[in-house]
Amino acid sequence: MPLRPLQWYRQLADGKGRRASGAFLVEGERAVSQIRQTSPDAIMEIIAVEGRGHDYAGYPLRELSERQFRGISTVRTPQGIMAVVRIPPDTYQARLPENPGDKILLMEDVQDPGNVGTLIRTAAAFGYSGAIMTEKCADPFSPKCAQATAGTVLSIWLRRSARYPDMAHGLQESGYLLVATDLGGSEDISVLEEKKLVLALGNEASGLSPEILGMADRRLRIATTGNRVESLNVAACGAICMYLSCRG
Predict the structure, then answer these.
(1) DSSP string of 83-151?
(2) Pairwise CA distance, residues 57 & 106, whole Å
(3) pLDDT tens track for 118-166
(4) CA 228/CA 148 separation, integer angstroms
(5) What pTM, to 2 d.p., does this model score?
């Protein structure tokens, strides 16, 4: 494979660059190892500081100097190893997988990449099969989001599309219960025990849209103790709900 200019790797930090190349970067030993474990065929190339890529035999290896590596890294303290990873081809389409699984996350306009990455990682940890995202959600393959997933970004299927309500409605027609988190909702957490579940989480500031709230089969509020805090961070709320939904 001919050597790519280093600028090509730098462009993967930008959404347009990722879409054009169909690839994104995963940095750090732990995250790269996780990708290799869950999606080994998605790794296109290993980029390593000279002498640090020997554990990845079988993959194309590009060795760089420390200075060159820092030039394409997006983290404050580079670990000297990263992978160029193929973006799944269906990510930006509104077509659900043939077998979407029992538990699905819906993120509507969750804009902080750390929150999106944490929610993807939590979904993978608690047995969720996939996540539906709006176009206003942080790009799951952006550097900060991919970093927050700790390499689990390909552990579940992802769909990022403006037609997310159509996908949610299609799941409802297939027997899924759409549960929307809402400050005005019920505190009955038993709704999370439904076998086929779509859990909807909204924007950090404004929550879920009237459209999704209107579609919801149930609205759920995670009660807090006392009156010091009105609501939880969306990633914390999602983590609690996903944990409760997988207990049975």
Answers:
(1) EEEEPPTTTTSSPPPSS--SEEEEESS---HHHHHHHHHHHHHTT--EEEE-TTSPPTTSHHHHHHTTT
(2) 37
(3) 999 999 999 999 999 999 999 999 999 999 999 999 999 999 999 999 9
(4) 28
(5) 0.94
